[in-house]
UniProtKB/TrEMBL annotation, chain A:
Residues 9-22 have a biased composition (Low complexity). It comes from Streptomyces antimicrobicus. This is ABC transporter permease. Signal peptide: none annotated. CDD domains: TM_PBP2 (cd06261). The lineage of its organism: Bacteria, Bacillati, Actinomycetota, Actinomycetes, Kitasatosporales. Its main location: membrane. InterPro entries: BP-dependent_transpt_permease, MetI-like, MetI-like_sf, OppC_N. SUPFAM superfamilies: MetI-like (SSF161098). The chain crosses the membrane at residues 49-71, 118-138, 145-167, 173-192, 223-245, 281-302.
UniProtKB/TrEMBL annotation, chain B:
It comes from the Bacteria. This is Peptide ABC transporter substrate-binding protein. InterPro entries: Peptide/Ni-bd, SBP_5, SBP_5_dom. Keywords: Signal. It holds the Pfam family SBP_bac_5. SUPFAM superfamilies: Periplasmic binding protein-like II. The lineage of its organism: Bacteria, Bacillati, Actinomycetota, Actinomycetes, Kitasatosporales. PROSITE patterns: PROKAR_LIPOPROTEIN. Residues 1-22 form the signal peptide. Residues 77-453 form the Solute-binding protein family domain.
UniProtKB/TrEMBL annotation, chain C:
One of its GO terms (molecular function) is ATP binding. This is ABC transporter ATP-binding protein. It comes from Streptomyces antimicrobicus. Gene3D superfamilies: P-loop containing nucleotide triphosphate hydrolases. Its main location: membrane. Residues 25-274 form the ABC transporter domain.
From TrEMBL, chain D:
This is ABC transporter permease. Keywords: Cell membrane, Membrane, Transmembrane, Transmembrane helix, Transport. PROSITE patterns: ABC_TM1, PROKAR_LIPOPROTEIN. Coiled coil: none annotated. CDD domains: TM_PBP2.
């Protein structure tokens, strides 16, 4: 997932992007006129997969918000006399090694997923937009320095980089969010920068400049709105990736604390019982898959809606 | 040290269950070599050179490559090996060992008193930075040698070829028992200094087996019978030790055993009940409570656990039985003492009265008395990636349920965990375990509970010793000193028992949880006399093929 | 007709059977299936071209001129496009009835095509020598070395300087004009009987346009090929074409020998096209432009497709589709080769 | 080209420098003493700790430690690990071989399945196969590697017993982890290939090729393929880089003895030399692969000028 966004977003660390490479799909600035939101929405709604994705994402959000109302039991409640129970009327999805209700833990798990997914990508976008805008705006030395810094963080494989940061910060939700953002922002800033560079040469910007608009005005009025579309599509797409990364970290035992109901934690506990108590990993897996698909479909739909020629 | 790194009583991070997947036929030509080939798996040892062999894997190899002054039976009884006799001065400070004459290292060098002086000096040398050298700390001159002030071991002397004299800086009537540790093994001249990489990977020893080729790191170690062994020779022709991935060694061993590629195996904890059902009837199931303890470090000097009552409240609140059944599926046994049942002379079942049975009422009462009010924040640390995640959650929940404490689980990787435990400010609980290095009560009580084992670093205040709960009671320390200086074994045992009762029962300096119970599979269909030794390894030197 | 082994020694002058045109298109209909419905891109086109003759096909984009050409070459995107009706006679034989493999063997040795934008029509990742030589390797089984030699020869012939040195260069390394010469060389490679040039000069600078056009004309003369020159620019064809067919909305609206058309167009659409050419003698006047947009072929207007844009449209134009009829002098004398599809051609041509 | 490569190499050095600085900074702030324990419950003898800190220069200030690291790195020396005191390069070399084996296997699967599926989908657009492939590749994106790993392991190893449950380095045991790694990439390659190929099929030069009378296979396998694979090659190159950097999850699930698993264990044990070794290697490989891919791009597409 993470490899995907990274490498498709921008293949190289430098220039060769001139080729007609659909590979660079998500990197290519989706030059959508801001006035076309209606049309974009129309195209999005016409995309069945995207709508399906939206339904999944909304379901996830609702589950997260209303978890205490939906969950049949306290996700922390242990019942050592009823460990590893197969799914039954009492425990629809069974109980784990400490006798906790799996359905409740999956429901509560959506909270961490939403929290980490949204927060880390929001943070990444915030850093990325600022750095990208600065690099694109000032160009020259500033650009070189910022982009080299971006290269440094880009060069870390996401999970590995995140683990290093978490080692330094300690486990927990906040470290996970920060560590994921720290290695995700370069993609955003590259996206924005290349978008700015290409938009800067666009006719309407030349026109604005010819009419005497200042550079900052051009950036704020013309360049950012046109570049932000690409960032948004990336963001929607990447939330799914961030959720996978977060679950991966917990799966490896470096994410959130193990007693916290979280999908990666559940899988980490379940793998000891592979082939013996398969329901322990099957249901959390389904939750993750549906969540990721939801965000991917929304992201794809958004990208296509923003720039139909990329379909 | 053993058991620590591999934490083998609960399998490592990734344990994959097996549904009896016997894959491929095993290597059955074992019997072709005269005496048979015994095959087993271990994780990569830290070292097999006795100067730094430490955990169970390393000592398995070192014990079979080297024979020292004494051997030990699983019940802790000493058996003389190279030591034909030992005499102790009345003050307990001078030990004189008569070394059996005429035995040789496998390269022909004689095993004499000089070989011990050479070996021990090599170990204690500053440059060796041996992790196990501290076992020699009681010997005179250790300080100077270990700090680099001297290059001679003042307290160790070869009086003549067959007489070894050891001077201790304090009385110790159980020094002989310490020498069962491989760090006390003799080495030949070719060993050279500790950084002799060639010797590190292919030690030449005087044991029942010798290396066939060098240690192939992360692949295998092969031992062959030493036909010139100075004692009763081994019956096995060869021992093939496959080095497995540390991530799930027990699963691999179990799988290997089922497939017939290993003759000895550990099992992943979730598989134990099934494995027992399958192999116990075939008489291939080996089970023993060994010389170790799983316990909770309670930080004695910081609130909220800075009173015996508070620690007792915690101990009473834990339902060991329920966790043993629910989480460990009956494969762990609650402990009610620190000293293990394998030390028959000092074992006191139930000495920790709070450990015997969960008592909610008493727990609440004691908590109330000691100010451990509901809502009190209690840190509960553990090291991650070693399979502790599940049961610590169960303990934490019981403390929440019974005492209404706000338990904060704090999982950390090994090194961080250790550094946090050492910290002077750390409070609350920390999971821990201890395995004996040699069969003495002192090896539990002194490191875990003596004031001297806090060994505070004057600069940082960190506890450098193993008594990280910082239990400190002069009366206890005095009992230990007395015991060490008591020549009579029975009287000594009584003193140790008294000390344990004081520290563990009266003052609850730490909180015992479960015994160290070990399970193995042994291929009794092909081999006779397969047993688990004191170090939880197979008794290779005594096994014979059918 | 279907043999693929046509050697280079073949006489330069084609067996000029003047009675049989090299190519004759009869009542050709091409349609495209799209999500919105069926687009009838070509609706009954008839034209022919003889050896040594140049037919210019004129029309706006979307008029069906390129689709007709692709149908002839057999390179329609199919699906969604297909020939729904009609015949394409190559030297008298209906090639629509041939198998795909037989048609393939016609392409190259018998008929060839020059595309508008040589940059996109040449494969960017192969050298021009490779792409030129491919003709010889595939159709004549020539070795790689010989094929390259032939490629150099061809490049010389289309007057590319330092051909030998540049044979291994890639298309993007050539200028626009040079690239188009390479396209021409490629079309000429096997000396086909018919060349279809689809807007060969549109993408080029005006000065280069003339050079390329001249070269094309010169080579056509030399090899006595039939040439169909597709263009939207009346100015380009005046000097090279023998006759002209004007297309609008998938139909031919007027056919004429080249010079007569300029003098007396017989269709208001042609008139409009002629009026929109800038002329020196009308300097200062506002340039004429045909008002409106080309018709939507999904929903072509009833009657004459040109009626919504026609300044002279009458009621009949909005109901009846005008047939393509011979155009005569006022006295009824035949005007050879002239037809028009306008209800009011008489008024148009005779004022 | 030459100057381009030199400039890129320069940038690479900068990136590697930055990455190792970040890595050092993170490891340096860790509370644990890197030589403080061997990963067990017992404390290490303070004398040993002091000796080892001295030996490995851990008492030096961070910049000095970093300087020594860089100096040694230039000599291809990653130092000794603090447990066995063996050279890190010697420890990691066989594990790297294992990781490389897995990476190559995964890439081969990517190419075989991804390219083929993408081609079929593009050539038979809107057919049953196209719909099926599009559906599967769309779904595959939603399956994280640990889910795929668990599914494959439980199905093919535990239930069907076709493959060993735990990898022992044999070819047979490589199949499942290789597929686990490959499925997502294969799906992406297929999507990429389909998209690119549809694009290329519409290109004028393909029409030209047909108009030249080339047989269909020449048109497809020469003119279409050669242009379609360019982005795929780029993608696979980068992907290979990340695979070589260690597939932590997959190696952990299947117990594949590669550098990814070594890293997971090193993190548990805070074995800093190994962590530094693996992470630096991962970053270096990623950066180098990026350069190679860019050069390859220029070779595959003559229009690209590297400047």
């Amino acid at each position: 997932m993470t490899e995907l966004t990274k490498s498709t977003a921008d293949a190289g660390t430098a220039e060769p992007a001139a080729a007609p490479a659909p590979a660079a799909a998500s990197a290519e600035p989706a030059v959508a006129r801001v006035t076309q939101w209606g049309e974009i929405r129309h195209r999005f709604v016409a995309n069945k997969l995207a709508v399906f994705g939206l339904v999944l994402v909304l379901a996830l959000f609702l589950t997260a918000i209303f978890a205490p109302l939906i969950a049949p039991q306290d996700p922390y409640h242990q019942d050592l006399t009823n460990t590893l129970q197969d799914p039954s009327g009492e425990h629809l999805l069974g109980t784990d090694a400490l006798g906790r209700d799996q359905l409740s833990r999956i429901i509560y798990g959506s909270r961490i997923a939403v929290e980490v997914g949204l927060a880390s990508i929001f943070l990444a976008c915030a850093i990325g937009v600022v750095v990208g805008a600065l690099a694109g705006y000032f160009g020259k030395a500033t650009d070189s320095v910022l982009m080299r810094v971006a290269d440094v963080f880009f060069a870390f494989p996401l999970i590995i980089g995140a683990i290093v940061i978490i080692m330094a910060m300690g486990r927990g939700v906040m470290p996970v969010i920060i560590s994921l953002a720290v290695f995700s922002w370069p993609t955003v800033s590259r996206l924005l920068r290349s978008s700015i560079l290409s938009v800067r040469e666009a006719d309407y910007v030349h026109a604005a400049r010819a009419l005497g608009a200042s550079t900052s005005r051009i950036i704020i009025r013309h360049i950012i709105p046109n570049s932000i579309a690409a960032v948004m599509a990336y963001a929607a797409f990447s939330v799914g990736g961030a959720i996978v990364a977060e679950a991966s970290l917990s799966f490896l035992g470096v994410g959130v604390s193990p007693e916290v109901p979280e999908w990666g934690n559940m899988l980490a506990g379940a793998k000891d019982f592979l082939g013996v108590k398969d329901f322990l990993w099957v249901y959390p897996s389904i939750a993750i898959v549906l969540t990721v698909l939801g965000f991917v479909f929304v992201g794809d739909g958004l990208r296509d809606a923003l720039d139909p020629k990329l379909r | 040290m053993r058991g620590a790194k591999s934490a083998k009583w609960v399998a490592g991070a990734i344990v994959v269950a097996l549904a009896a997947t016997a894959c491929g036929g095993g290597n059955d030509k074992g019997d072709s070599a005269k005496g048979g080939v015994f095959r087993m798996g271990i994780t990569e040892p830290t070292a097999i050179d006795p100067f730094n062999a430490q955990e169970s894997e390393g000592s398995l190899v070192a014990h079979n490559l080297f024979t020292g002054l004494y051997k030990v039976e699983p019940n802790g009884k000493l058996i003389p090996a190279l030591a034909e006799s030992a005499t102790t001065s009345d003050d307990g400070k001078t030990w004189t060992f008569k070394i059996k004459a005429g035995t040789k290292f496998s390269n022909g060098e004689p095993v004499d008193a000089e070989a011990f002086v050479r070996a021990w000096t090599r170990v204690a040398d500053k440059k060796s930075a041996s992790d196990v050298a501290y076992h020699m700390a009681g010997i005179e001159g250790y300080e100077d040698l270990n700090s680099g002030k001297s290059d001679k071991f003042a307290g160790v002397k070869a009086v003549d070829a067959n007489t070894l004299e050891v001077k201790l800086s304090a009385a110790d009537f159980e020094f002989d028992k310490k020498t069962v540790h491989t760090v006390f093994a003799p080495v030949p001249k070719v060993a050279g200094a500790a950084d002799n990489k060639a010797y590190n990977d292919q030690p030449i020893g005087n044991g029942p087996f010798k290396m066939e080729g060098a240690w192939e790191h992360n692949k295998k170690i092969t031992l062959v019978r030493n036909d010139d062994y100075g004692f009763e020779k081994a019956k096995l022709a060869k021992v093939e030790i496959t080095i497995l991935n540390p991530n799930n060694t027990s699963t691999l061993e179990y799988q290997g055993f089922q497939a017939g590629t290993f003759d000895w195996a550990r099992m992943p904890t979730p598989q134990l009940p099934v494995a027992k059902q399958k192999y116990a009837p075939k008489n291939q199931w080996v089970e023993a409570d060994t010389s170790g303890i799983n316990y909770l470090v309670a930080f004695n000097q910081n609130a909220p656990l800075n009173s015996p009552d508070a620690r007792k409240a915690i101990s009473y609140a834990i339902d060991r039985e329920a966790i043993a059944k629910g989480v460990f599926q009956g494969m762990q046994k609650p402990a009610s003492s620190v000293l293990p049942p394998s030390f028959a002379d000092v074992y006191q079942e139930g000495v920790c009265t709070t450990c015997v049975k969960q008592d909610v009422a008493k727990a609440k009462e004691l908590a109330e008395k000691s100010g451990l009010k509901p809502g009190t924040v209690l840190d509960f640390g553990y090291n991650t990636g070693s399979g502790h995640e599940e049961w610590v959650q169960a303990v934490a929940q019981q403390l929440k349920d019974v005492l209404g404490l706000e338990v904060k689980l704090n999982g950390k990787p090994f090194k961080e965990a250790l550094s946090e435990q050492k910290d002077k400010k750390t409070a609350g609980l920390w999971r821990s375990a201890w395995g004996a290095d040699y069969p003495t009560a002192d090896n539990f009580l002194f490191p875990l509970l003596a004031t001297g084992s806090i060994n505070e670093d004057p600069a940082t205040g960190a506890a450098q010793g193993d008594n990280r709960g910082r239990y400190s009671n002069p009366e206890f320390d005095k009992l230990l000193d007395q015991a060490r200086a008591t020549k009579d074994a029975a009287a000594r045992a009584a003193l140790y028992k008294q000390a344990e009762k004081l520290a563990v029962d009266t003052e609850q300096g730490l909180i015992p949880l479960w015994k160290r119970t070990q399970y193995r599979l042994a291929n009794t269909a092909k081999f006779d006399n397969v047993k688990m030794d004191f170090f939880e390894d197979p008794n290779l030197a005594e096994i014979s093929a059918k | 007709m279907t043999t693929s082994h046509i050697t280079a020694e073949r006489p330069a002058a084609a067996p000029g059977d003047d009675e049989t045109p090299v190519l004759e298109v009869r009542d050709l209909h091409v349609e495209f299936k799209t999500r919105e419905g069926i687009v009838r891109a070509v609706n009954g086109v008839n034209y022919s071209v003889r050896s040594g003759e140049t037919l210019a096909v004129l029309g706006e984009s979307g008029s069906g001129k390129s689709v007709t050409a692709q149908a002839i070459m057999g390179i329609l995107d199919s699906p969604p496009g297909r020939v729904s009706k009609g015949e394409i006679l190559f030297r008298g034989q209906d090639i629509l009835k041939l198998s795909e493999e037989e048609r393939r063997k016609l392409r190259g040795p018998k008929m060839a095509m020059i595309f508008q934008d040589a940059l996109s029509a040449l494969n960017p990742v192969f050298s021009v020598g490779n792409q030129l030589g491919e003709m010889f390797r595939v159709h004549q089984g020539m070795s790689k070395k010989d094929a390259t030699a032939k490629a150099v020869e061809l490049m010389d012939r289309v007057k590319i300087p330092a051909a030998k040195a540049r044979v291994n260069d890639y298309p993007h390394q050539f200028s626009g004009g040079m690239r188009q010469r390479i396209m021409i060389a490629m079309a000429l490679a096997l000396e086909p009987d018919l060349i279809i040039a689809d807007e060969p000069t549109t993408a080029l600078d005006v000065t280069v346009q003339a050079q390329v056009m001249d070269l094309l004309a010169e080579l056509q003369q030399e090899y006595a090929m039939g040439l169909i020159l597709i263009t939207h620019d009346l100015g380009v064809v005046a000097d090279v074409a023998d006759k002209i067919a004007v297309m609008y909305a998938g139909r031919i609206v007027e056919q004429s020998p080249i010079h007569e058309l300029y003098k007396r167009p017989a269709h208001p659409y042609t008139r409009g096209l002629l009026d929109s050419i800038p002329r020196l003698d009308q300097k200062g006047q506002e340039l004429y432009a045909i008002k409106g947009l080309p018709p939507n072929l999904l929903k072509p207007p009833a009657g004459c497709a040109f009626n919504p844009r026609c300044p002279k449209a009458q009621d009949i134009c909005r109901t009846d589709v005008p047939a393509l009829v011979p155009v005569t002098e006022q006295d009824g004398a035949e005007l050879v080769g002239r037809t028009s599809a306008c209800h009011f051609w008489k008024e148009q041509i005779h004022g | 080209m030459g100057s381009y490569v030199i400039r890129r190499l320069g940038q690479m050095v900068v990136v590697l420098f930055g990455a190792t600085v970040v890595l050092f900074a993170c490891l340096f702030v860790l509370p644990g003493d890197p030589v403080g324990s061997l990963g067990g419950d017992k404390a290490r003898d303070p004398a040993v700790v002091a000796e080892l800190r001295e030996r490995y220069g851990l008492n030096d200030p961070l910049p000095v430690q970093y300087g020594n690291f860089v100096k040694n790195l230039a000599k291809g020396d990653l130092g000794e690990d603090y447990t066995q005191r063996r050279p890190v390069t010697e420890i990691l070399a066989p594990k790297l071989t294992n990781t490389a084996k897995l990476a190559v296997a995964a890439i081969v699967i990517d190419i075989a399945i991804g390219l083929l599926a993408g081609m079929i989908a593009a050539l038979f657009r809107y057919s049953f196969w196209d719909v099926l492939i599009t559906l599967l590749t769309t779904m595959a994106v939603g399956f994280p590697s640990f889910v795929i790993g668990l599914v494959l392991l439980s199905t093919f190893s535990v239930k069907l017993a076709w493959f060993p449950v735990i990898a022992d380095g044999s070819f047979q045991s490589m199949i499942l982890p290789a597929f686990t790694l490959a499925i997502l990439d294969a799906a992406l390659v297929a999507r990429l290939m389909r998209g690119t190929m549809l694009e290329v099929l519409k290109a004028d030069y393909v029409k030209t090729a047909v108009a030249k009378g080339l047989p269909r296979r020449t048109v497809l396998f020469k003119h279409v393929m050669r242009n379609s694979i360019i982005p795929v090659v780029t993608y696979l190159g980068i992907s290979f880089g990340s695979l070589l950097g260690g597939a932590l999850i997959t190696e952990a699930i299947f117990n594949w003895d590669g550098i990814g698993l070594a890293l997971v264990l090193a993190i548990q044990q805070q074995n800093n030399p190994i962590i530094i070794g693996v992470v630096s290697f991962g970053v270096a490989v990623f950066v180098v692969l990026n350069l190679i891919v860019d050069l390859l791009y220029a070779v595959l597409d003559p229009r690209i000028r590297l400047a």
